[in-house]
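Researcher: Re-running this chain for the archive, since the previous output was lost when a drive failed. Same request as before.
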Amino acid sequence: MKLITGILGSSLGKKFVMAATGAGLFLFVVGHLVGNLQVFLGPEAINRYAHFLKSTPELLWAVRLGMLAMVTLHIVTAVQLSAANKAARPEGYATPGAYGCSWQSRFTLVSGLVILAFVLYHLAHFTVMLPGINGVGDFTLLKTTLHGETVPDVYAMMILGFQVGWVCLFYLVAQAMLFVHLGHGLAAMFQSLGLRDQACFPRIQCFARAASIAIFIGYMLIPVSIYLRVIGADYAEKAKSSLIDATPATAKETK
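Model: Regenerated structure tokens:
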């Protein structure tokens, strides 16, 4: 306990915790992207992937609790460090971006808060009951058959969800904020973990830029392709019909 309070009680310790949790969250972002890109392989691929996660609750809850802990520590240490920096220098620099401060670093805290808001919405959008989205009912009623077993139709959820213009736009804004956050955060992570030196830092910066761009493009392709009806256009009509049929009569009457 003293070790933990000692680490969190120092500025250097907070930076290390922020970097370590950032590394864990980055790995999750990459893994989540790889899983979601299976939507391009068709309904069975993405539904099989989602069913695998649901059918292994020990793995799913371990990831959820680990993510919750990392997100909490990451946000708390970020806010504390930001407050400490402002207290140490109440007046800003005369020239914005002085002393090697990039434009991305100045928006790190703001972009992080926008990403947090997006994550909460994302969970509500596809995990929690959110009736009325797209005007066709509750996504939790979408079901399909996978190897003889009735499972949630995640493919239909994604198709119907991203065919809504404002939803697609919100996801794009969130991914832009993630791009900004990672562009600075990945490079800063190596420095906070003591892995930076003058010889390799240019390569680290290139990696941070390349990774943030690749992740932005990967996540952007999913909502844009669905909204433009590149994928899932025919499946959407079928999903709407099945959702309307599955909606209780009382819910239909209130619409």
